[in-house]
Design brief:
18 helices, Hydantoin permease, about 450 residues, Sodium-dependent transporter
């Protein structure tokens, strides 16, 4: 039997964990939520929510994962023998499987755009043409399925290589490249005439947006952007050495997530305002408005390639985390099965994702409750699965693990550990419950 792998370095773990969190949530969803909710006030609420709610839950998953030193199901069984808490792991298995089934569809869209950008097919198009292009891509059955299959191939190829040779090595390449690409695009955006208006939008408060709805949206964004609730960080932390400081690692992941989210805004909003667009474009901001903006810039074709490479890297770092959750539970301690199960589960996820891929074309009719299959799976996972997973994770860390248990993982008893236990026992569960209830009300 092979020995269970571990991360080769602290930076490898942090980059992999940060990559899991920094996906479409930071690059796609954060900018359009910011644009639709008044800019600076939303950003302020997002940062507060990330630190007060997201960080305690993230650290709870780190504690549970490293303490278990196994996949999420086995690790929870070891820590609470004879109890049903291991269902948190199976919940993570199911919802990671379902999330990746439609997430891979969006990853395929990005590959379609990247291919067109490389072939210089995204130049000299008007705003209406970019909208027609997007609708044409997502409505083309053959293209979306081929692109989805290619994206899943890339994800499987990385995960089947293992923790060190696959996930850690890929994260060490993709995350620094992502930060570099972000920096290049941000500098270009900030040098545009009129870019200062976008900066003001992000950092000068408009207190009229200081509302309960804005706070709730910011809380939801903070919660989902850290990729908690599906046992992903439990899985990654299970490969972590006992010598590493969990609190510092969690702070590093949270800091990177906030920085990348704000940098995404600093790329998008200065360009949006400089070129006369409205910031509240919604989900089409990245796929319709941004290509139109790049098309008007000097070296726009090159910048567009960089942007979609950046999006691909961010999406892949999240997809490999979701597949790793599924594979690790299937592998358990029989590590020689990793390669086989990575390809098997990856193929199954692709098949389950086919209806999502076709939801904007031949299967565009409502599937359930008036939603397409794509939208239904999105809502099922983001508004129900993730909050429930995070809620039970908080309850397990706060009430099942003793203060001594958590202190041993967090470097001894301290005022910080006491504060963290208060947050994870009382504050986080209430906040998660509010998000969950509001999500249910929005759906039904």
């Amino acid at each position: 039997m092979e020995k269970r792998e571990q991360w080769t370095s602290k930076i490898g773990f942090i980059l992999a964990a940060a990559g899991s969190a920094i996906g479409l949530g930071a690059i796609w969803k954060f900018p359009y939520e910011t644009g639709s909710n008044g800019g600076s006030v939303f950003i302020l609420m997002f940062i507060v929510s990330t630190i007060a709610i997201g960080l305690p839950i993230l650290l709870a998953e780190f504690v549970i994962g490293r303490r278990g030193q196994a996949d999420a199901v086995t690790g929870l069984k070891k820590q609470a023998p004879g109890k049903k808490w291991f269902l948190i792991g199976w919940s993570g298995f199911f919802f990671s499987f379902m999330i990746l089934s439609f997430y891979s569809v969006v990853g395929g869209w990005i590959l379609s755009y990247l291919g067109r950008a490389i072939l210089l097919q995204l130049s000299n198009l008007g705003d209406a043409d970019f909208a027609n292009l997007f609708n044409g891509i997502i409505g083309n059955p053959l293209e979306v399925l081929i692109a989805q299959a290619l994206f899943m191939f890339l994800t499987i190829w990385i995960v089947q290589g293992g923790v060190q040779a696959g996930i850690e090595r890929a994260s060490k390449i993709m995350m620094p490249a992502l930060l570099l690409f972000f920096l290049v695009l941000m500098i270009r955006s900030l040098t545009l005439d009129g870019a200062i208006e976008g900066v003001k939008f992000m950092f000068v408060p408009d207190w009229s947006f200081f509302t309960f709805d804005t706070a709730l949206t910011a809380l939801g964004q903070a919660f989902f952007s850290l990729s908690v609730g599906v046992a992903g960080m439990i899985t990654y932390a299970s490969y972590l050495s006992k010598a590493e400081n969990l609190t510092r690692s969690a702070l590093s992941v949270v800091s990177l997530n906030i920085i990348i989210s704000i940098m995404a805004g600093m790329i998008i909003f200065p360009a949006v305002f400089a070129l006369g667009y409205s910031p509240d474009q919604g989900p089409g901001l990245v796929f319709i408005i941004l290509p139109a903006i790049f098309d008007q810039l000097f070296m726009g074709e090159f910048l567009m390639i960089i942007f979609f490479v950046l999006m691909l890297f961010a999406t892949l770092t999240s997809s490999i985390a979701m597949l790793e959750i599924v594979v690790s539970i299937g592998v358990k301690n029989k590590f020689e099965r990793r390669r086989t199960l990575a390809w098997l589960y990856g193929l199954m996820i692709f098949v389950v994702g086919i209806p999502s891929a076709l939801s904007f074309g031949v299967m565009s009719e409502p599937f359930l409750f008036g939603y397409t299959f794509f939208d239904f799976i999105d809502i099922l996972t983001s508004k129900i699965g993730l909050p429930l997973g995070a809620l039970f994770t908080a309850l397990f860390a706060g009430y099942v693990l003793t203060k001594k248990d958590t202190a041993l993982e967090l470097g001894g008893e301290s005022s910080w550990v006491s504060i963290w236990r208060i947050l994870v026992r009382y504050v986080a569960p209430v906040a998660i419950a509010i998000v969950f209830i509001q999500g249910i009300l929005d759906v039904f």
